[in-house]
Design brief:
Radius of gyration of chain A: 18 Å
Order of helices and strands of chain A: HHHHHHH
Low-confidence stretches of chain B: 26-32
Radius of gyration of chain B: 19 Å
CATH superfamily of chain A: Cytochrome c-like domain
CATH architecture of chain B: Beta Barrel
Largest interface: A-B, 45 and 49 residues
Shape of chain B: globular
Mean pLDDT of chain B: 89
Oligomer: heterodimer
Order of helices and strands of chain B: HEEEEEHEEEEEEEEH
Number of strands of chain A: 0
Strand content of chain B: over 45%
């Protein structure tokens, strides 16, 4: 094997091993993991009726199958009307969770929606209190 | 030129896809998950746990000196865990003046080792494939080129290829843009040397914010981007020499019922490539697939 392919394969192995090491140290206490800077982020669509309506559409498309159409939760997934989500978590906390997910607990990242749609769905969730 | 057989195959594939997405699947299964409009490149996104994504990818090409063909595969992608996605493919192809054949199957697994989102996100990919006379061109590695498509089906079909394929997938999301890079290493278990390839792609929705009202053709339903991929030689000769390279724009649209349709004309960048490939796909995601069976059993 020539030098370039050997380096290529070595790089893959190094990334695999280091990634597995980081994954093994993760935990599921997401709210405690939110950096202060993210927690303090303001929602640019805060309380806007159009954003709440758009957020409801996004919620029904992507979130309702796990968290229930009424956001009350299902057998394995938590309610989004809980005190933790409605009062303890800031919009910034929820944004951080939606961007990063909590894969160990089954919560995927929703970064593919893009920031505007993430903020819109947060508007809707916070309107449920 | 007689395109009737290819056209027939094309129509069958399209009809099956539309039937699956629009008629057989009931409306309560609807999802509006928007897929990236990539045909070769994998992004860092994993299938959501419990969701089943059914996709049909097709490519039409006309290699110089050979017969036109259409390669198709049907994919069943399932999210086992937030960090683990598994996918099963069934491949087939039809070649003008030759035959329409089933070319084999593939089974892949993707693992996302890092929790959380980072400026660049790695995903590890491993695939086993058992194929022959494949023309789906789901990746280009080694010295794959237009000459491979000049071999008649009856002869190519006798050459069984059992291969493992490893990929390092890197992906980032920046200001609404997804940027994905794949580095590919493939090994024929019959003893051929390792072959290498790459794929890059980037795309963005035409509008990032969602509309307050449901709409079919608003900008948020469209994604547009660019995809480029090609071979990087093999363990005996790493580099671009005698490799095929492709580049093309790509666009997708997600219908209100959740079906995503994508199209891309991809152009060969050198004489070793097929001059142009036309790719299109149809995909449909069923959310929490197994839960529908549980409900029906109650």
């Amino acid at each position: 094997m020539t030098r370039a392919p050997a380096l290529f394969l070595a790089a893959v192995v190094v990334i695999v091993l280091s990634s597995l090491a980081v994954f093994a140290t993760s935990n599921g206490a997401w709210l405690a993991n939110v950096p202060q800077r993210d927690r303090e982020r303001a929602n640019p669509y805060h309380d806007q009726p159009d954003a709440i309506a758009a957020g409801r559409r996004i919620f029904l498309d992507h979130c309702a199958h796990c968290h229930g159409a009424d956001a009350e939760g299902t057998k394995k997934r938590p309610s989004l009307k809980s005190t933790r989500v409605q009062q303890e978590a800031t919009d910034g906390d929820l944004h951080w969770l939606l961007v990063n997910g909590n894969r160990g607990q089954g919560m995927p990242s929703w970064i593919k929606l893009g920031d505007p749609q993430i903020w819109q769905v947060i508007c809707y969730i916070k309107s449920l209190h | 030129m007689d395109y009737s057989r290819i056209l027939t195959f094309f129509l069958r594939v399209g009809r099956a896809a539309l039937l699956l997405a629009g008629v057989v699947l009931p409306s309560y299964l609807k999802s509006t998950c928007q897929e990236y409009p990539y045909f070769v490149t994998y992004s860092q996104e994993m299938e959501e746990p419990g969701n089943l994504d059914i996709e049909m990818f097709n490519v039409v090409g006309n290699p110089q000196g050979g017969n036109s063909f259409i390669g198709s595969d049907v994919e069943f992608e399932y999210g086992l865990k937030g960090w683990w996605t598994t996918e099963f493919y069934l491949d087939g192809q039809a070649t003008q003046n030759q035959s329409t054949i089933f070319t084999g199957f593939r089974w892949e697994n993707r693992f996302r080792p890092l929790p959380g989102e980072h400026w660049i996100n790695p995903v590890l990919y491993a695939e086993f494939e058992d194929i022959s006379a494949d023309k789906t061109i789901r990746e280009v590695v080694g010295h794959d080129g237009r000459y491979d498509f000049l071999v008649p089906n009856w002869l190519a079909h006798m050459d069984k290829q059992r291969e493992i394929e490893l990929k390092l997938i890197l992906g980032s999301n920046v200001h609404g843009w997804n940027i994905s890079e794949n580095f590919i290493a493939e090994k024929n278990l019959a003893g051929d040397p390792w072959e290498f390839g790459y794929a890059f792609a980037t795309s963005r929705p035409l509008q990032l914010a969602a509309s307050a009202r449901e709409c079919a053709f608003c900008a948020e339903k469209f994604q547009a981007g660019v995809e480029m991929y090609g071979g990087l030689g093999d363990a005996n000769g790493f580099g671009l020499h005698l490799t095929s390279q492709y580049l093309g724009p790509t666009v997708s649209w997600t219908a209100p019922n959740g079906m995503t349709v994508a199209f891309s004309p991809q152009f060969g960048l050198n004489g070793y490539s097929i001059p142009v490939l036309y790719r299109f796909s149809v995909s449909y995601e069923i959310q929490q697939f197994l839960s529908h069976f549980r409900r029906s059993g109650q």
